[in-house]
Structures are given as C-alpha cells and as structure tokens.
Amino acid sequence: MTPQVVDEATRRLPERQKPQGAAKHEPAVPPEPGRTDAELLIAASVLLADAALTARQAGAELTGALGSRLFGLAALRRPTWALDAAFSCAKALTNPAGLGFGANGGLFGELARFAGSVTYRRPAKVAMAVDAFALRIRAAAAEHPNLAAPAARRLTDAMVAGNRIEALRALHGLIERLGITRALTTLSPVMMELLALLGLLDENPVNDSFSWVTLAGGIPTTDPFMGLPSSLIKYLNPGPGRAERTEPDSILAKVLDTSRNDIVSYINDIGALGNHGLALLRRVRCSDGSVRHVLLLPGTSFALLSNSTPQDVIGAFDGCLRTDTTYTRAVRNLVERAGVPAGSELMIVGHSLGGLTAMNLASDPVFSSTYRLTHVIAVGSPIDAKRPADHTTRVISLVNEHDVIPTLDGRGPASPNDIPADWVELSWLDESYDYPLSHAPQAYSDSLRGPMAHHRERVNGLIGAYEGEITANQPYMLRDK
After folding, report:
1. Are 227 and 204 in contact (CB under 8 A)?
2. Cβ 277 vs Cβ 472: under 8 Å
C-alpha cells in the first residue's frame, strides 16, 4: 500500500466559505475548479450547522422572553396583548413548520426540552444538526473509502436515523468482520460525529451539550453518554506532580548516544523513553554559541486507567479538557529542579499526551513568560483547540490520519474548523492502518524516514536553531505525587 500525502491546501476549507448550491444534498452547479466533492459537502454542513445553531438560539431567546420579568409586568398592564404574544411565541416554538418544539433555556424552557426529548420530539434545530453531521460523514467517506463500505455505511446510516438497535447490530457485524482494532480505525475519522449523533437522538436530554459543542467546533466539556461535566476529572487526577532525576537504562543510553537535532531522532528518543513516567531534558550548545534546551515528553500508557505517573488514561482525558494537569505540574517541577535559567530558549517535542501537555504548557502565561518557548512539536496529539500564550511560539503538528487520537479535539478529517494560519500541520495516510499501530511513535518515525521525508526536511528546517553539540541528556521520572 502506497502512503498518500494529504495536501493541506485541499484538506482545509476557508472559514465559512459558502459555494453556490452547497446547502443542498447535491450541488446545484458543477463543482468549482479545484474544489472536491468532500469540500462541497463540508461547506454545506457549515450552512446547516449555522442554521441549527441559529434555530437553537432563537428558541432560547423566545423561551427567555416568555419567562422574563419584563414580560410578566407588561402582561399585568396589557393582558390581551400578552396573551396574543404568548400564543404566537408558543406556536413558533411548537409548530413543526417553525422551530418544532424548540424551547430551551431557563427553568421552564429546560423542562419543555426534557419533555420533548423523552417523547421523541425532533425540533428543527436537531433535524438540521443531524443533517450537518450526516454531510460531514459523507465528506469523510469521500476521503476514507472504508467508511463507504457496506458494513460501515450500515452503521453510520443507522446512527443518522437514530436507530440505536440497528446501530448496535451494525457495530457488532463490523467488529465481527474486521476485528475491534480495525473497526475502531475505520470509524475514527467520524468518531466525534457519531458520538454527537448519539447525544442528539437519544432520550437523555442531559448529554445534548456534547453534541452542540461538537457541532460548533469546540471541545465538549461533558461526556457523550451521561452528560457528566469534565470538571469531575480533576478530582481523579489531583496530584501536585513531581520529577526526580534518574539514570537511563542500557537501551535508552544507546539510543541517546546517536541522538541529534532531527525530528525522526526526537521521535525515536521518545519511543525509547517509553510511557511509564520518563521524560528527558536535553541541553544543547548550539552553532551560534547559545545554550538551548529540548524537552521530550512521551504519551499515554493504556495498561491501567490510572497509575502513579501522569502518563495514564485519566491524565489523557484531563489534558484534553484542562491546561493545569498533573503532567504539566510535574514538567514544571522538572524544569525548575534542572535549574534551567529564566529566559532560556526551549523546544518541547511530545507524542500523544506529551504533545498535548506541551501545548498546555505553552498556553500557560507564567511558563511562557518565564522561558522562551520557541517551538512545540506535537506528534499524533489532539491539540487543535489549544492556543499558545506567546504568539511567537512555533506550533508544528504531525498527524497520521489513520490515527484516532488526534481527532479527540473535535477536529477530525470531516470537520470544517481550521487551525491558525501560522501553525504548521503536516498530515498523511500511511500503511499503518490499524490503531494502536497507527498511533505508535515508530509509525510516525518510519513515515518521516521514508515516503514523508519531505515533511522531515521541512520540520528540520524550522528547528535549525537547535543544531549543535548535545552537552547533557538527563532523564527524569515523573510522578503524580
């Protein structure tokens, strides 16, 4: 299988670009030169998402107006007018030709919304949101043909229709046919859309927030099943974070002996560190005479939900949703214990949770003002909703589009949302199809060493200031407490 490069110019849709005829299921005019069917489908999904969010806001404003104190006072003075106004608002909120049971917000609005959910009412806002997600799924299938295969299409069609029993049967059939890892990989480009559809179309009104935030392009702060708030995660990951110097074992020492200022070398170093709590601080006497530092942060251990290090599953969820985590606190402790001088230039390279933690540190104004964070390189990390506090920090994101982890920020291949123009995102499709192989550091380094060598050259060109003599490689063991 030949790896396929995904060119950024065709992968991205200019923000809120609305081509003629894109609001229909099929374009009313021939596709514009240079525009793909997937781009037109995403453009149409943007229009529907805007309409759905507007309808939701209109329902909230009408509901709020009916329950407002000012309306109550006006009703005392002009009861006939108030009755007519209330009737018109209620009709707009419940008429299938209008908002279609679109009440929401406030005590009475939320009670009405709950009643609508448990009685299977589908407001106009939900219908348009479902259609928007359906178009995103179709767009992803155009770029990922495995999604268009009958077994996968059966599942996505059932989710769009809100038929959970058929969806469970289809999922069982897909796993039976492909195995759980390949089934997960097949669905990974539209995982957020499928979870959002589940939240919109079930009888639980509490988890709807996940779907609306996903539709708007944000990071959900609730889970898609029960609607539990993400703030609960911090109670599961409360450690202050600690870093202790340690010595490399023979395998790590051998890898570090051949290290150099090269993205493939950095990824290989991270792979050698493993994901059982180690991180590495490197001091480099650069060619221009300056002393700079490189911090290498590995990703998540999936062996246990929680362990004694910050590199666990709980820490991964925490890192997605918050910026001040046990991992970031442990890394701050590492840099302080190492005696890195304030104002020093620092580059952080992280894989998976390590890249996410690098962006969380970059978004911390105190950390970014204490050290000159020149580069953040995230490898297979869901960082797209994070922003560095220092606008001069160069953000480089490397993404294998078969890897499910980078999509956890809500921006999958079918998302219309884009990253800042000054970021460098390099993405590709390679032969490491199945998760977790597609997420492994070795899969990324193999691609960059082979068919994606031009991406390797580009990244190395961006980090050329760190070329020089490595004067220290110090591993640290990170602990929660």
Report:
1. yes
2. no
- CA neighbor of 436 nearest in space, from 76, 190, 184, 155: 184
| Cis preceding-peptide flag for 436 (omega within 30 of 0) | yes
Residue 455 CA to residue 396 CA, distance in Å, equals 11
Long-range contacts of 94-102 (CB under 8 A, 24+ apart): 98/124, 99/55, 99/58, 99/59, 99/62, 99/123, 99/124, 99/125, 100/124, 100/125, 100/127, 102/55, 102/56, 102/58, 102/59, 102/62
Amino acid letter, 172: H
Candidates 151, 224, 150, 144; CA nearest to 183 is 151
User: pLDDT at position 10, please?
Assistant: 34
- Nearest Cα neighbor of 410 from 261, 195, 229 is 195
CA distance linking residue 149 with residue 292, whole number of Å: 50
User: What's residue 178's pLDDT?
Assistant: 87
Distance CA 303, CA 245 (A): 24
Sort strands 424-429 and 4-6 into parallel, antiparallel or unpaired.
antiparallel
Contact between residue 144 and residue 156 where contact means Cβ atoms under 8 Å apart: no
- CA 30, 35, 41, 44 dihedral sign is negative
Q: Which pLDDT score, from 0 to 100, does residue 277 have?
A: 95
Q: What share of the chain is helix, strand, coil (3-state, %, to 5)?
A: 50, 15, 35
Q: Give Cα 91 to chain centroid, integer Å.
A: 39
Dig out the tokens for 89 from the structure. Answer: 């608002």
Residues 475 and 247: beta-carbon distance below 8 Å: yes
- Strands (E) located in 172-277: 242-245
Secondary structure element (H or E) that encloses residue 57, with its range: helix 37-66
Alpha-carbon Rg of the chain, whole angstroms?
A: 25
Element (H, E) at 72: helix 69-77
- Mean pLDDT by groups of 10 residues along the chain of 481 residues: 39 38 40 65 90 88 79 84 82 76 71 69 87 92 87 95 93 91 84 89 82 83 77 79 95 95 97 95 96 97 81 88 92 96 97 96 96 97 92 96 82 72 91 79 94 96 96 96 89
* End-to-end alpha carbon distance in the chain: 46
**Residue 122, pLDDT score:** 77
- What are the C-alpha distances in Å from 19 to residues 33, 36, 51, 397? 12, 12, 16, 29
